[in-house]
Write a structure and sequence with these properties.
Elements (H helix, E strand, L loop, with lengths): L1 H31 L1 E2 L2 E2 L4 H4 L4 H38 L21 H13 L14 E7 L1 H18 L4 E7 L1 H14 L4 E7 H8 L18 H4 L6 E5 L3 E3 L3 H5 L11 E5 L23 E9 H6 L2 H16 L6 H11 L4 E4 L5 E2 L18 E3 L13 H12 L19 H11 L8 H6 L6 E2 L16 E8 L5 H8 L4 E7 L1 H12 L2 H4 L4 E7 L7 H10 L5 E4 L4 E3 L3 H11 L7 E5 L1 E3 L11 H10 L3 E2 L14 H6 L4 E3 L8 E5 L15 H11 L3 E4 L5 E3 L6 H8 L1 H22 L4 H9 L1
Parallel strand pairs: 3-4, 3-6, 4-5, 8-10, 11-12, 14-15, 14-17, 15-16, 19-24, 20-25
Antiparallel strand pairs: 1-2, 6-9, 7-12, 8-9, 13-16, 17-23, 18-25, 19-23, 20-21, 22-24
């Protein structure tokens, strides 16, 4: 501690030198420009009025002073360099005290400490313990509702996790949509020393629905007002953040500011950086009452225990009721009401330095909050324009935001050394399963993939669909990676029903997909397509995991298990809905087979009927799927019979059969041990047969496989002998598991494999 204090004294001395040497120099220069109490002009024009002797003396004095000024400037540069090095090497527990002083507009919440500046900031900490303990949990509350906000909050959380050194407890006030998305995301993210609790935003609507609000955030923009009532009664303090926030520093620095609150200060806020509350933005502009420029509520420090004792709930309600009698509605949601309360009770607020909420909306004074990149703490994209906002440094801010947007979230799963994490049952089970694997096994990586937990973001884009009331609705299910993105528009044109897609992407690719989708009129016009991002991890393509994710998140009673490379025939959606009724799929265990064909042509005049397809088949424009490389996969469909069939017909399971089928949503999942290329669909069809599903071919349905470059996984299968050996081993183990699970009836799968 003594060493730290000595270091701080050196740091303080250097700071004082930088601050006062220029001041003394200018006093000296100023005093030197007086003679006998009268000002002596150094201007060449005025010096001509003096005697030659005086002029010569004055010239020598100026030269001497200029030399001295240059020396002082050199000394200052050296000191600044030493000061910056000391800052970069120094301990990280300054907690927001900086070597720069800020104007009252930027604020520190205490005018006395502002005047004291750096002296008070550094000397007061010498000999004290850090304001935030090493393993102290930092509590963060965020209101999040809907699909877009759920995407935004992920970027915010990434920026917090990137810099953090403390355990975190996120309190998410979320609607049903955001809760489903974020609960799955955090459960599969498995970040150590992070706890998530959800609070039902829909239950809180009645608390604020009486307040008319014109802000684009809607009713959810008012819910920060009721946090004292919503959050646990034993929670004493919390940092409240908007979803459009990006952190550029450790959030512990902001948490430490709570220790600076004095007296009745219970709200930590940054002054609003626009002129909104000054009421001069346009003619007849009439904002809610505010203290000066008002305060922005994108970042709030709440002392919950004191607020409860002050009866905050009653305070803001009475204020809102009174102001609404003349204002009629809020324009900036909760921010208007917070400011009206502060106007009446200014003692409640501790003014945070404005670098804790650099507000990037148009026409703000945000540029006064920072002089260098190191000054930035929190960036707030509080404009409806978001990244398109006007600011002369907006490119820098945009790049910082995009860095976290595209940052690999898997890298944030790092442990906090020295801080014990809460026991996580899922994590413990995973570690136990992995420990049972033999790392010397040549197929270890294959086996390990089965237990890999992939971070998953459900409903990456807006989804809105109510299944048909007649219980015949069918969802098309498929999976894809970035190299098959071009198929999406074509599939949407061929299939008008709901679609559930699992996309295997990196964080950066997910953003490329988002831009691609938002730029597509076809995709943006469809709200019944669920896009579920499964983030890349490991060396294999987890094809069956992707299928399971897509299957799990359908809202219809039936699903069509397809692949992304296939285009369904026009009208297939309606045809399948009729077939579901005709074949009584609701009460029988059937798998309806849609016959598969393929073309080798990248440009195809898609057949509009079965007759047209048969003609193209005869001409050699189309072929039965994989007839020339994998005949066994679809041979049991009996294409010869299909050509003339007018009614559905039953076929029997055979070895390596892998048709595309329509089944009820309660059918078994795909086996995750099969990754990449080989046996992933075969194993699933085998299990359907083991569960006594009846395979029925639809006579007037078809789908066509479109050509594409070979996937990376099929290339590995063909070129890597060990890959093929491991696949064979996994097949044998799967068949043995089937025999143990289904008994004597499953022995046929072993004999069929041996005979094939």
């Amino acid at each position: 501690m003594l060493g730290i204090c000595r270091g701080r004294r050196k740091f303080l001395a250097a700071s004082l030198t930088v601050l006062f040497v220029p001041a003394i120099t200018w006093i000296y220069l100023f005093a030197g420009s007086f003679e006998d109490g009268k000002p002596v002009s150094l201007s060449p024009l005025e010096s001509q009025a003096h005697s030659p002797r005086y002029a010569a003396s004055s010239q020598r004095e100026r030269e001497s002073l200029e030399v001295r000024m240059r020396e002082v400037e050199e000394e200052n540069r050296a000191l600044r360099k030493q000061l910056s090095l000391a800052q970069s090497r120094g301990p990280s527990h300054h907690h927001g005290n900086h070597s720069k002083t800020y104007s009252m507009e930027e604020g520190t919440g205490d005018s006395e400490s502002l005047r004291a500046g750096i002296v008070a900031g550094n000397s007061s900490e010498c000999g004290q313990q850090p304001a935030v303990e090493k393993c102290e949990t930092i509590h963060v509350a965020i209101v999040c509702a809907g699909y877009n906000a759920s995407r935004d909050v992920v970027t915010l959380v990434k920026s917090v996790l990137f810099h953090r050194r403390n355990p975190l407890h996120f309190h998410l006030i979320a609607d049903a949509i955001a809760k489903q998305i974020l609960a799955t995301l955090f459960q599969t993210w498995m970040v150590p020393a992070v706890r998530i609790d959800f609070y039902d935003a829909d239950e809180l609507k009645s608390e604020v629905s009486w307040i008319p609000n014109k802000h684009y955030s809607g009713i959810y923009g008012l819910m920060k007002l009721v946090l004292t009532k919503t959050l646990p009664s034993n929670l004493e303090r919390v940092i409240v953040l908007d979803t459009d926030i990006t952190f550029a520093t450790d959030i512990a620095e902001l948490w430490a500011v709570f220790h600076k609150f004095k007296g009745q200060q219970v709200l930590g806020l940054v002054e609003n950086q626009s002129d909104w509350y000054l009421g001069n933005l346009w003619k007849n502009h009439r904002p809610w009452p505010a203290l000066g420029r008002g305060y922005n509520t994108g970042v709030i420090l709440l002392l919950l225990d004191k607020l409860r004792k002050m009866k905050w709930e009653q305070m803001w309600r009475l204020t809102a009721e009174r102001e609404l009698m003349s204002m009629l509605s809020t324009s900036l949601a909760d921010q208007d009401i917070f400011n009206a309360v502060i106007k009446q009770n200014p003692f409640l607020v501790y003014q945070l330095p404005c670098f804790w909420n650099v507000q990037l909306s148009d026409h703000t004074r945000s540029e006064q909050c920072y002089r260098d990149v190191s000054d930035l703490k929190v960036i707030h994209w509080n404009s409806p324009k978001k990244l398109r906002v006007k600011n002369k440094h907006v490119e820098f801010f945009r790049n910082l935001y995009l860095t976290f947007l595209e940052y690999d979230g898997n890298l944030l799963r790092r442990e906090l050394f020295g801080c014990p994490s809460e026991t996580d049952v899922n994590s413990e089970n995973l570690q136990k399963q992995l420990s049972e694997l033999d790392e010397d096994d040549l197929c270890y990586e294959f086996r390990r993939e089965r237990f890999t937990v992939h971070r998953t973001h459900l409903y990456f884009l807006h989804y809105e669909y109510e299944p048909a009331s007649d219980n015949t609705d069918v969802t098309l299910v498929a999976q894809l990676s970035m190299d098959r993105l071009q198929m999406l528009e074509a599939i949407c044109k061929h299939w008008e029903g709901p679609i559930s897609l699992a996309l295997y992407l990196s964080d950066a690719e997910a953003q490329q997909f988002l831009r691609y989708a938002q730029g597509s009129e076809v995709l943006m016009s469809r709200h019944n397509v669920g896009y579920h991002i499964v983030y890349k991890e490991g060396q294999f393509y987890p094809v069956n995991l992707l299928r399971n994710v897509a299957m799990k998140h359908i809202s219809t009673p039936y699903m069509f298990l397809s692949d992304i490379d296939f285009l369904p025939m026009y009208g297939l959606y309606e045809y399948l809905r009729k077939s579901v009724i005709q074949l009584d799929l609701a009460n029988t265990k059937k798998a309806l087979i849609v016959p598969a064909f393929e073309t080798l042509r990248y440009r195809l005049s898609f057949p509009k009927s079965k007759a047209e397809l048969l003609s193209m088949l005869d001409m050699g424009t189309l072929f039965t799927f994989r007839y020339h490389v994998w005949t066994k996969g679809h041979a049991p469909t009996n294409f010869a019979k299909w050509r003339t069939a007018t009614t559905p017909y039953r076929v029997e399971w055979e070895a390596d059969f892998e048709p595309y089928v329509v089944v009820r949503k309660d059918c078994p999942e795909y086996d995750r041990r099969f990754v990449g290329f080989g046996w992933n669909k075969v194993a699933h069809i085998m299990e359907l047969d083991a569960q006594e599903y009846e395979f029925t071919v639809l006579p007037n349905a078809y789908m066509i496989h479109m050509p594409h470059a070979p996937s990376f996984d099929i290339t590995k299968f063909r070129s890597n002998k060990q890959y093929r050996i491991c696949l064979k081993t996994l097949k044998e183990e799967f068949q043995q598991d089937m025999s143990r699970h289904y008994g004597f009836a499953a022995l046929k799968y072993l004999t069929a494999e041996n005979n094939s």
